[in-house]
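Model the whole thing, not chain by chain.
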Amino acid sequence: MYEQMVTARHYEERLVDEYLVGKQPAFDISAGPIPGELHLAAGHEASGAGVCMHLRDDDTVTAPHRPHHIAIAKGVDLKRMTAEIFGRKTGLCRGKGGHMHLFDPDVNFACSGIIAQGCPPAVGAAMAAKKRNTDSVAVAFLGEGAIDQGGFLESLNLAAVHDLPVVFVVEDNDWAISMPKDRVTDVQNGAQRAAGFDLPGVRIDSDDATAVYEAAGEAVMRARDGNGPTLIEVQVHRRMGHFMGDAEAYRPEADIDRAKERDSIERLAEDLRSHGVTDDELDEIRERAHERVEEAISWAKEQPEPGPEEAYENVFTNPPAQAATDGGSAADASGDADEMGGDN
Amino acid sequence: MATESRDYTEATETDRELTMSRAMVEAIAWEMRENEEVFYMGEDVADYGGIFSSTTGLLDEFGRDRVMDVPISETAYLGAAVGAAQAGMRPIAELMFVDFFGVAMDQIYNNMAKNTYMSGGSFSVPMVLTTAVGGTYNDAGQHSQTLYGTFAHLPGMKVVVPSTAYDAKGLMHSAIRDDDPVVYMFHKRLMGLGWMPSPSGPKTGVPKEDYTIPFGKADVKRPGDDVTVVTLGLHVHRAMEAAEQLDDDGIDAEVIDLRTLVPLDTETVLDSVRKTGKLLVVDEDYQSFGVTGEIIARAAEGALDDLSAVKRLAIPDVPIPYARSLEDEVNPGTDDIAAAVRELHE
């Protein structure tokens, strides 16, 4: 768990370095080796690692727009994920998704850029598991700014009424971009919302990875045993702006300082030391993590960009046999009925 | 799963006639028997059997686990269908009225339609979104739209619009077996409901065995030399009636049923336009930025030199009105189609 957290933290620190290349002195979001927006999760590591430690490859995770720590904890291919963030051909999504839209079918991971959007598909994955009589589970991660979204509340209800094996994990970093939590909800303990659906709700009121691990263990086991969904809310901290380039003018200095003081990684390191893990051992873990990150970034940077013609690929898994706008023969499309009605 | 498919023109002749809803359900039931991964969910689809009889009888045969009534929460259950499809199952999820898409459009066009592309092809979303479309029964602005163009405009969804029982069955087999998300838009007026009489056209002979109709193949419903009429859904039947009237006047109209909007059979339209030189497009969707403009643009791109006249008939950019006199005014009728063809023929 510590290694996953350290990997995620270092990964994001290195992404900052790479992201800023070419974007200074005048910030241009489209310049440099990493295009587009970048939302970093430094300070969120406890939830990703604490929950995903309980998951197998056949369990499904959907993550929000701040996905890296969760992806790393779930075992997403780090090299291909990095190549995707750099917009390369060999990226997880062949350069068509980017950092907010990472998909890795090998470990059943997906994330999305729209608030609470991953909740219904997680419910669907859980539905599939139940219908197939497997004991796999689904976990939907979302931020505290998403708990007012209808999609989240509808998903809690649908999962509850069908007793589906799904765990909802709210990462509460107190800020929905510039909106502080107390201005968007009167329910400061988001886990209480579970009661409205007759579900268990647990809040971990600190970024204590061990406490998350224990609560998640119970929730995942409950889901695997066929006893239905759980809502977990974890207090985390946002150590950076909402996105790279966010000057955070709306955020009190003291809040930023507090986020940096309360560090889940330091906290877990203390716990480990108190259980007899030596500094050397912790250093060794950190070094191993750093090496893995450097390797992924170097590999990604060497990868080619996709060719322009690839922009037209992957709209469909089973594409129509002709491009309708090019005046090509539609009759060609009808020739192979087997293809059009393709089996799976 | 059986993969046998064949061209619709070779289908077995049959005396057995079915309504469009019965034909749809027959295909769904066949696929559910063959493949345990196929299931159906939606509002009132189990005990009720679908408000428009889209699932009649399925609960009895397949039980609640495979024919699921869901809470009124389109975002949750349409998104859940996406999740189940990405997990490899083959869900069919029904949106009761297409007009309700607004409450769940994020899951439809940002997840269902885009995840294949955004994942670089590593995930497929083999689901069918069934939905009822169309007016002509005085249900006003929130329950009478067709919205063909909305779904066909946004990339990543295949869009199917059957107009007969024969097509409804074959296209449903194709839709369920397809590895991509398919939006299957059935017109309420064509379903053969006891409480909403259909015109005579949609009830057709339907073979008992399974068969697929390939997407992207329009059906030339009536060959003709003078004017091409391109349409879909309910208006196929109105165009056919108009063509019969016109025949008495010595005008030979060719009627083309598009059947699928994505993919679109441009070539059949172009072949017809090259022959007749005159094109009328009829659509029950709003006129601007829709199917009528798209077909005319493609005809212009592909056969401009052959075109001597074009015209379109669609809902003239007003929400669907309630009163019978108002709805009749804006929804293209048989006489409107005949008049438009006459105008083109002059």
